[in-house]
Amino acid sequence: MPKGEGKVVSQNKKANHDYFIEETFEAGLVLQGTEIKSIRAGKVNLKDSFAKIERGEVFLHNMHVSPYEQGNRYNHDPLRTRKLLLHRKQISKLIGATKEEGYSLVPIKLYLKNGFAKVLIGIGKGKKKYDKREDLKKKDAKREIDRAFRDRQKQF
């Protein structure tokens, strides 16, 4: 199964808008109690989340997992820091990449693969304002071209 394949639960749409994603890694998540039930229900948000390397381990900050409705006292803190599971070589590669100026670890999407929650994190270089404008122009041009092709095919 290629990277990022499975039932996509949540995507960080701002990641591609704000960063040039250069390389991606698939990481497992250390979850507590009813968190997996909330994730399976799709009650998760990656919008303002980021990954950080602390003491040789990778942690995911600000990922919001809503409390499970039937969880009563076993529920968790929605914004708690969660540990990511990666191989030692991958972590050392991430450490080397984030030491460079302008690079950060960005969660791209959260998905379920073989019953386990996985996060696709990428090494991202921040975009400048003019880069974002350029991307929007390219996206609009592509949309116009696709629309023209569709209209042309309807004529025949």
Automatic annotation (TrEMBL):
Gene Ontology terms for molecular function: DNA binding; RNA binding
Keyword Transcription regulation: no
Keywords: Cytoplasm, DNA-binding, RNA-binding
Any one cellular-component term (Gene Ontology): cytosol
InterPro entries, per the entry: SmpB, SsrA-bd_prot, SsrA-bd_prot_CS
Source taxon at top rank: Bacteria
Cytoplasm found in the keyword field: yes
GO biological process entries: trans-translation; trans-translation-dependent protein tagging
PROSITE patterns assigned to the protein according to its UniProt record, in alphabetical order: SSRP (PS01317)
Coiled-coil ranges from the UniProt annotation: none
Localization annotation: Cytoplasm
Gene3D superfamilies listed in its UniProt record: 2.40.280.10
HAMAP family: SmpB
Annotated function: Required for rescue of stalled ribosomes mediated by trans-translation. Binds to transfer-messenger RNA (tmRNA), required for stable association of tmRNA with ribosomes. tmRNA and SmpB together mimic tRNA shape, replacing the anticodon stem-loop with SmpB. tmRNA is encoded by the ssrA gene; the 2 termini fold to resemble tRNA(Ala) and it encodes a 'tag peptide', a short internal open reading frame. During trans-translation Ala-aminoacylated tmRNA acts like a tRNA, entering the A-site of stalled ribosomes, displacing the stalled mRNA.
Family statement drawn from the similarity comment of this UniProt entry: Belongs to the SmpB family.
Protein name (record): SsrA-binding protein
